[in-house]
């Protein structure tokens, strides 16, 4: 536990500025004493709101009265942080906020660091690290999909997932350790470690499945990027403005107008989407345009989807931008009114339209929305949503697979790989405790009877 938890901290938990109500939160061993000093009265009943004036005797303010807020008292361990906590629900004027903060500091409290309340909750076992991350995601949620995913993770959905893996790995480890350490016991069957094979195989498949959906969780959290790429004067910026529904990018008949990546935000399928208008891809004529082409290729490489734009009159040629195209890429054939474009050979989805008039834009948007819903919408169950989650599970999966391959010839090494996998899951949770395997061994095999 951090040494900082010996301090009593406070913070304004509501948004700063003028409001109907502003909320201060206190946490730490001195929270109760401070609340009594502020109100000049004994503590209210736990978890019951009480209307009480608060004072600061250190200032000459007409008797020191600051405000008459609702106060709440949450004695440990039944509080958000697991410590003694209190809340002050004050009138939300800047003057009241400043006076209350000054009074709390006069009483010896320290202003909380960013995320310190949630950190204390994790350190005190009120939630694990994945639930804390879900709480952060819920606070930042801007779309319905983000809210749903954050609620599932904050509610322990990801914890339930890795705890299931952890329980199974502990079972497998108990089987192997039972054979290694207690092979002479009559109650321990021979080759007990072979019973670990189906357990390890099942955990490996489940972890692999979770990793395969990590991009879906990441996209819900951080949004989806769609890069619009193609040669100069293909109509990329005009298409960008049509998709965004407003003039975001400068359009011109002059080739190379777009030099840097231009972004626009919209929502499709309930998820945040960032459109990227990029520089025309060609052999650059100067260093500035060359840098624009480099940035365009770099953003297109990491984008979740790419829309290739070509003029129907030019036909579809193997420009530099499509050398590494993917099956999920989209081709928008930008044709003039009355023009009959040739049908290009393209592995991905093809849309025909006119970026200037808006023809075909509704069809392109409908396709994009359907694609996003199918491939990026939140899943029913909680999944991995961050690179940290993916890294921990990848390391655990590698150890689980190694354990299975070593089980017959070297059960001792197989056991160590399971322990490493468990440590990776403990890192995912933000804790370290894998000694429960011994309890499982003794309870299952009557050892030491």
CATH architecture of the largest domain: 3-Layer(aba) Sandwich
What about the largest sheet? Answer: 6 strands, mixed
Radius of gyration: 30 Å
| Distance linking N and C termini | 38 Å
- The CATH superfamily of the largest domain appears as P-loop containing nucleotide triphosphate hydrolases
- Report the CATH C-level class of the largest domain: Alpha Beta
Can you tell me the number of structural domains?
3
Q: Under CATH, the topology of the largest domain is which?
A: Rossmann fold
- Considering DSSP H and I runs of 4 or more, what fraction of the residues is helical? 40-55%
Can you give the mean pLDDT?
80
Instruction: Please work out how many helical segments DSSP would assign.
Output: 14
- Side by side, the strands of the main sheet go 3-6-7-2-1-8
Shape: flat
Number of strands: 14
SSE-based structural type: alpha/beta
**Low-pLDDT sequence parts:** 1-5, 433-449
Strand content: 15-25%
Order of helices and strands: EEHEEEEEHEHHHHHHEHEEHEEEHHHH
